[in-house]
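Researcher: We're teaching a course module on how sequence relates to structure. For the next exercise, students receive a sequence and then see the predicted structure as tokens, so they can try to spot secondary structure elements on their own. Here is the exercise chain.
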Amino acid sequence: MGFLKLTWNTFCGQRAPVIYVTGSKRRLSLTLVLIFFGLSFGATANTQPQLTQELSAAETLFASDAKAGEAAFRTLLTQQTEPEAQLKVQQVWCWALAPAQPDAAVTLVQHVNSQHPTMAKLWQLRFQLCQGYAEEQRGDNQRAFELYQDILQQELSIQDPELHIRALSLRAEQYARTGEYPKALADFQQALAVAAQQNDPNAESYISNALANLYADPAVADYQDAIPLYQRTLAYHRSKQNLQDEATALFNLGSTYESMGDLPQALEYLQQALKVELQRKQPDDIAYNQRSIAIVLTKSGRAAEAVALLDQAIAHYRNSNNLEYLAYCQLSRAVSYKALQQWQLAADDLAAAEQYFKANRNPRFEARLYKEFADLQAKRGEWQSAFLLQLQQLQRDAQLQQQLLDQRTSALKTQLQTEQIRSDKELLQQKNLLQQQQLQDAEQLKLWQMIALGCATMLILTLLLLIQRQRKLSRQLADLALLDELTRLPNRRHTVAMAEQLWQQSNASTKNGAPFSVLALDIDFFKSINDTFGHQAGDLVLKKVAHCLRFSLRPQDKIGRVGGEEFLILLPATLPSQALEIAQRLCLELEALNWPELAPDRKVTISIGIAGKAQQADLLQLWHQADTALYQAKHQGRNQAVLFSV
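Model: And here is the predicted structure for the students to work with:
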């Protein structure tokens, strides 16, 4: 799948920039993004219409010109004589600063607290929420979480529904970031319920989108719950004629259906999203959607169409000098070229993408890159190169696992530090219980350390098991490449190799050689089956015939698929007369099979040519004799076995 594309607007209608969240197959882990721009809560309630308009104008100006916007806020602040009005101006200013200038936002909150030491507790909580979001932008997620948590523990926060909704949504984002998905879901669901009670369709729409994104995350994978929520946001944005967010909702629907494996439905929504982006005439969004559609087309067996779309996207990213997304598109096009068996073109694109990732380290995409490289080399028969590339993939996967381990360990350490600070505060307040409290804290600290050590050990063991499993899979890679993908029988190359080996063994076993026979087998009227019932039915026939043949042969016998509907059976230590009996039995067993998948009275039969080792010069002559006998069986009416005779 591609990537989730999220767009967040304000409760007051101002547009926020499109934000892309990337991940593995689709996403490594969903980090929900919640940015509420626009007039802050409390800024419009009981506010003079003129001040509301001036605040909106200052905020809009700040979004395009920060310096001019700051001057506008300062002017508005000096014009206000009432403390309540000053707080409203500073509140909107804080939220304007927080996304791009978080340090300035924190400084502003500190200034407000010192300037208004007796301001109402509800206003303190509003500024605390803005500070929490600014701390989040500074990278101090733990501090942000503590501020959000403190707000939600205050019963007073319920008195301001918008404050309550935002605090719940921002805390949900933090829970999602650390992988605590049940808690994140609970917070988003509660925020959605409050928004519904307030009859705020704009807030409902964007919280629904956030909740849907969380449901659609691979770690949650509750796609059936995500779909109705995306449909709900789509209907809302269409009613508002909001093309940007309509395209986002369509894109997210397509991405979710792709995760579900419903490729036709995914393609339909992604193409609708592209149509809307073409109306908006936004080249970056158009190219992004083209790449996503191309990925689904390749998965759907339409790689040639995918290449055409990727060519357009690559041309755009080259012209705009967007090297990161150029590399992503080259990686996707390489996958499409592989599907078309255009090995060199695939290799060229992978090499081009590799240059970018070498200069701009991204372990996740490097792992994907080397996985595709290894697969390409395996398909070209370059096993040593494929093995080395897969080792590089394992190294990148190990780096990702180590990063996750470091993050979780750091989070546990931070939680321990936070708990210690809280305990110290309690000790100061409860001097009479100092000794007992210190003992409890020491025991709790030891417990947390043991938990942290246990978690770290489990993560390391998990990583080692994954590496061991990947190494085992890499050893199986060469064997898997020798199998026919549809029937899971040995392919032509592998079958010929087995035949040569058995031929040589039969020649070396005794002075005159051991008996050895081959059966050349062909499904009767297979083209008619394809034409009448479709290629899907034809594939089913091939798999069912292969399964029947495999389990009807002796343990020492070998079978492989050597052509479209052609199979070769190798019978070591078997005389021609014995081979004829085996072939006739196979014909009868195939004829007895029922085929409800085709038609109630439809029968599938086979014709078999048999040749036994005699005075042939080599294996190819023996095989040719079996093919000649097969042709004779076809000529005599099919559904029979014929032994070659001179």
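Model: If you want an answer key for the exercise: The radius of gyration is 34 Å. DSSP finds 24 helices and seven strands in the chain.
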